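Margin note from the TA: students keep mixing up input and output lines. Inputs are the sequences; the output is the structure of the whole complex. Example:
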Amino acid sequence: MDFELNEEQRILQKTARDFLKKECPKELVRQLNESDTGHSPELWQKMAELGWQGLILPEVYGGAGWSFLDMAVLLEEMGYNLCPGPFVSTAVLAAPLLVEAGTEAQKSEILPLVARGKQILTLAVLESDCGYDSSVVRTTAVREGDGWVLDGTKLFVPDALAADRILCVARTGGDPGEGLSLFLVDSRDEGVSVTPLKTISGERQCEVVLRKVRLGPERLAGPEGLAWPMVRSALDRAAVARAAETVGAMRATLDLTLAYAKERVQFGRPIGSFQAIQHYLADMWLDILGTRNLVLRAAWKISTGRPARNEVGMAKVRAGQLGRKVTTVGHRIFGAIGFTMEHDLHLYHRRTVGADVAFGDTDFHYEEVARGLGL
Amino acid sequence: MDFSFTPEQLAFRKEVEDFVKAELPPDWDDQAVFWPGSYGTMPQMESEFQEITRRFNRMVGEKGWNRLGWPEEYGGRNSAMKAAIAGDVLSYYRAPAGGVAVTIAAPTILLVGSEDLKREFLPRIASGEAGFWLAYSEPNAGSDLAAIKTTAVDRGDHFVVNGQKIWSSGAHVTEYAWAIVKTDPEAPRHRSATLMIIPNDTPGVTIKPIINICGNHSFNEVFFDDVRVPKKYVVGEVNQGFYNVMLALQFERLAIGSGAFKRVLEELVQYAKETTRYGRPLAQDPHVRRRLAEMAIEIEMFYSFYWQSAWIQDQGRVPETEASALKLFFTELGVKLANTAVDILGPYGLLDKGSPWAPFGGRVALGYLDSISGPIGAGTSEIQKSIIATRGLGLPRAR
Ligand SMILES: Cc1cc2nc3c(=O)[nH]c(=O)nc-3n(C[C@H](O)[C@H](O)[C@H](O)COP(=O)(O)OP(=O)(O)OC[C@H]3O[C@@H](n4cnc5c(N)ncnc54)[C@H](O)[C@@H]3O)c2cc1C
């Protein structure tokens, strides 16, 4: 066992901290929270120069070929700094899925662009029945000539407004387990309309309506009817990614709150001297320590190619629940000042609750853990 | 023991219900995105709802329902239970009623105010014309109210007030500050301050908005620069301000909306019946059933405290520890209900007001954010627990 980051990971972490502190100040975060796409092309380009979008993509496609665990280290820092934009959608959710599912032509066209920061991707799974289960996909893809016609409505698609391409899960056959396929949809394709959903989480989720969208055969990504297991793995990776960001947000919350507890004076002494506040902070610290270990362990399992479903579920449940708890308790310690728009704390709280319901909520992942027990 | 309402009380409830249903605009529910047990989304506090708030409060005033708890000599019915029943119904329909004047200023004036003060303010509070805001907190005096720095200097027939208040909910939509200020800075902390009424339109009062995390302008910071306050506006005795504020705080902690909890639960139950997840109604999901059942139990427990505290008042007592317990339970319930709602709704629960897919017009998303304010405002949960432990259970003080 070794609980230390390795040399490269430490450098990545340090680079990320320095870079984000400078290039991703809170003013930018707030500005992007108000914008439609939530995306800054300048920041995106600078991140690409550091090789982040291609961090876990294979070198043959212009990526850096690093591990998912390395990615988790980076994401934790991004969460700490509230780094906005379509990073998880592109670099964790969609691009690695394309590596698994895409044709050679698709991969060699798109992935190098992703790695250079020239192309933004996302994945559209959920529909109005927002469960993470293959059976809820009702969007259909019907053969027409040698191509396809897609019809349906996708919901909660992250970053679809910023995305150049949307990997879209659609039903090509009747069997719930096997009838799903992946298509590369371009937001400019005829019949595609993308509408942002207003959420309180600071994310940029969209409704994507597909009305008789005609696609050539080259748009099918991967074997017909067999997409679901690959999609599930992509969702697992994204779940861990959001959990890693949450760990960063929790750490930032503790840092902010701890500093405040030392300086805010009531009844003639710092509020951090009251036992009620001390217990809160001690719990926060412990919650973060435990969550971080679970998240990194899940990321490590994925990196080493071991079955990780169980660990993903555990990490996601804990990060989701404790992320909300830690930011909520942070609010209690700050009192009224933390209840203002001007203060940064709510930005972290919004992210953590967003992460909790994304990529499978608590009940869903509890169920995964229960299955892992043989239930 | 008897847990039932009298036929008269039931008839009164019906009367209030009929009135509210007739007088609120038909689309009021879509407009009033308000969360129970919290302080940042009340429509009464928002500029855009002032017209209806004022109109509605006048009508409630005409009915005599702003003074149900008052003694009969002041036109009241001397019944906290009736006030609680009316409050329950108004809260259920999310009506823009209640407020500091009715729930806090009036009962405090009745107990400690001068005859002049009663004559000047009680009729206008009863009619729904005079609105108040609470000028307690300052940047360095939140939980520790005795640390206030705003001063009032005695100038014969008036005081001159200088200083700053903050988190002043509704200061921008009401007429009078209900203010605690230092009148004897040299005296021991608890004999150093005075409670007084300061009209907002007095020269030297400046009100600046603060936007809360729900995006609403509900509270403000307020500056007092050489503000002249006539002595007749002192509430209770000079330098007894902290005692009077503690009294007012008890009334504040008792003034809570109950019906809105029940309403949200009913809405969630309906939602669970109508919504499918994983191809089956949410209502069949054991997790969802259990969470809703949990909320039903909590709300029932809350109601028992609610009616009990009205009953205690009708026995001629002012609930002290019970007021803290009620406030604590009610705001923590707001948090639990918001969290339960988000858990059940999943990604839908985070959709904001204005999103076509948002269930209940985005009430859950904003409610989740607003629920954060409940355990902070009107004395934090930590402070309420200390009050219960020290005053209620007789434990020694730590501080
Ligand atoms: C939405 C909203 C509306 C409000 N409206 C009004 C209003 O209209 N008028 C008004 O005057 N005020 C208003 N307030 C202010 C409110 O009364 C204060 O926020 C509250 O009293 C806490 O003070 P504070 O925010 O300064 O926190 P602090 O007092 O600084 O407390 C910070 C933290 O320390 C804890 N703490 C403090 N002392 C102790 C102790 N002795 N033991 C254990 N823990 C302790 C607190 O519980 C809290 O967790 C409002 C607040 C909110 C959030």
